[in-house]
Specification:
Elements lengths: L1 H14 L8 E13 L3 E16 L4 E17 L5 E19 L2 E12 L7 E14 L2 E12 L10 H4 L2 E11 L1
Antiparallel strand pairs: 1-2, 1-8, 2-3, 3-4, 4-5, 5-6, 6-7, 7-8
Amino acid sequence: MLLGCLVFSEMLASAQYKTFRSPLTIGVDLGIPAYTAVGDMTGVLTGMHIKKEWRASTHFAASLSAGYNYFSGKVRSFDDKEVQHFSILPVLAGVKYYGWKKYFLGFETGLNIGLDANTSTRLALVPSLGAMLPVGKKQLEVALRYSGTKLGSTFPEASLLNRGGYSFLAIRLGWQL
């Protein structure tokens, strides 16, 4: 709530003086499993994304993004069932705080939409820490992201991927168009 009030007041204060650029970013993600609530995951996550960002001021921005993530490796559920790979489509909305020149803190939330029979759609929470590095007249976004898929309950008990409760630690590289 406090963050929302801060963003809104910053938008009102800065809207009178400047118009900020709203970049479109495309890029890639590369990650590893970071946590599973019940089960075990080994392997690598690769993905691509597209993100639209709206700068409200020099310090705050809002964003919408969508992507495609593919996990190749082994997922073993609590009941010893194994899956070799799966795909998800993250659709997220978020905020960024640019507190230090080119560095930012971000938080996104939305849905990880399951694209396989082994996965289901679950809530995603994604904090990040990154930097916008100038490359000529464009910028390269480099970020460390923790993408957590919320654990849900199912009846009868579903596999690990259908229940959620897994997460990835990933590096994001994004090029502003």
